[in-house]
Amino acid sequence: MSRFIRLLLLRILLTWSEDHSAALPVFPSLLPTTTTTPTTRTTTTPLGPTEKFTAIQPLATLFTQQNNTDLRSQVGTTAVLHCLAHHVGENTVSWIRRRDYHLLTVGTQLYSSDDRFQVRFVKQENDWQLHIRYVQVRDDGVYECQVSSHPPVSLFSSLHVLEATAEILGGPEKYMTVGSSLRLVCVLRDHTQPPSYVFWYHDDRMINYHVTREVRVETSGGLSVLFLDNVRPTDSGNYTCSPSNTRPAFISIHVLKGGETPAAIHSSANTSFPSLLVLLLLLGLLSPGLSPGALPGPSLHGPRPGCSSWSWFTKSSVLSLFVGPVNAAGRSLYNSCHDK
């Protein structure tokens, strides 16, 4: 009986729990909560037959200066051509003279037999410089800086060589009076840099540092001035302005004595040579009896009897050299004293 009662109670309890399970309170779990994070997995897919592997390419060579630049340099100075090349890498930089495609330098090595050419690499600026010392007129032309990349890249520079000249203002002659002051101004033309020095000469003697006369020279840039106080007749002569790396200039100074005029100086200069000519003619024509060996003369067949060597040589040669219109007369005189 008791067993039956227990089964009945159990059946009632089960039936009631099924009907009221939704109304039972839900208590929070006392177990610690766990969180899961999703994981990612990277898979490497092998390259297929149609896929290509792209390698990192080196940076292309870059010139950081303008192409086809012009440089002016005067004779005797040093010209510097620049080539600013970046990202050269394992390539080499060469300088080539375009006139004859002559290879001048490769890297830092000189390939020309002309040791006036030098190459200098300025690492801070990536500048491959070509130096040409003691520039000459024949160095004028186009030069190429080439980097041996694929394809090669080049930078061109044109060198213009100037021949500087000097000019003395007021030339080619100047007339002074005794006791006056001489001032000569020398101007440089077509120069690219000031001269290292300017030497002044009186005839063949340099007078920049004259110890016995008050000579003063002032030089600034492309201008040089010579000062000489209280000129004397001995100061007459040729004066030369000779700057470094420059073609010199000349001027003739005439110091007039009391009563002299420029016309008188020109007259005496023009009559000095004819006077010498007349003296030579008279000596040759009036002195046939001089020794035959006094002056050697041309001898084809020897003189005829009665004609001395000095007489026919003097008459023909002197006349021929100094008086052009009488060449025929000189030849007739020569033929008259020689066998044909």
SSE run: HEEEEEEEEEEEEEEEEEEEEHHH
The tally of beta strands, per DSSP, is 20
Identify the overall geometry: elongated
Classification by helices and strands: alpha+beta
Strand content: 25-35%
Poorly predicted spans: 22-45, 268-273, 289-340
Would you summarize the structure shown here?
By secondary structure, the chain is an alpha+beta fold. The chain contains 4 helices and 20 strands.
Structure description:
The protein has 340 residues and is of the alpha+beta class. The protein is built from four helices and 20 strands. The strands form five sheets. A six-stranded mixed beta sheet has the order 2-11-10-5-6-7, with no helix packed on it.
What is the topology?
Blueprint: H1 2-19, E1 62-63, E2 69-74, E3 79-81, E4 85-86, E5 93-97, E6 102-106, E7 109-110, E8 117-122, E9 127-132, E10 141-147, E11 153-162, E12 165-168, E13 173-177, E14 182-189, E15 198-202, E16 205-206, E17 215-220, E18 223-228, E19 237-243, E20 249-256, H2 262-286, H3 309-322, H4 327-336
Parallel strand pairs: 2-11, 13-20
Antiparallel strand pairs: 1-4, 3-9, 5-6, 5-10, 6-7, 8-9, 10-11, 12-14, 14-18, 15-16, 15-19, 17-18, 19-20
Helix pairs in contact: 2-3, 3-4
